[in-house]
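INFO  loader      accepted 1 record
INFO  loader      residues=187
INFO  predictor   begin
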Amino acid sequence: QLMGAVRLELNKLRRLYHISKNLSVAAPQRFRGWFTDIHGFLYEYLNFFSGKNFSEYDKGNAAFRKLSYHIYTIPEIETKREEVLFADLLHTTGIVAESRQHIKDLWESRLSVYGWLVTLLLAVGVVASVVMTLGASQYEKFLAGTIIASVCIAVDILWRVDSLAAECCALPKRYVDNVARLELSRK
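INFO  predictor   done
INFO  writer      dumping tokens
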């Protein structure tokens, strides 16, 4: 779900860029300066994630607000086409804002303290019962070691999945990589 929400946000950010660029190309005298600012704010937002851990996602709020608030400052709309494109910009900006909230909620949703307590108590119970029933043979010691190691590995995997450890560094890179996916060069 988190990856899907990030994909949606990045997709809609690219859409914001392309719609704004289209407005700028269609009426450069009115929209070029406005688009140049959007270009800069979008570039700033995506590059905010450079070298960051995804746990700092919320710190990007100010950069996103600069982008979204600037969209509302669109110059005077003169044609029906411009009106339709601006309505799409507003709608797309709303989707990005919703996906940002969804990303934040997903990032913060973790196994509860109670859930971790139950998991750890179960792990301790399994380890204790294995140790208490441990026999003297090498086979039984090997089996006990295997069971204890398996329980420890299972708890570690659960911790890594719950803490989204693998995503901490991978997700910010997706934002930075999107700078290259946008046609950010000014022609």
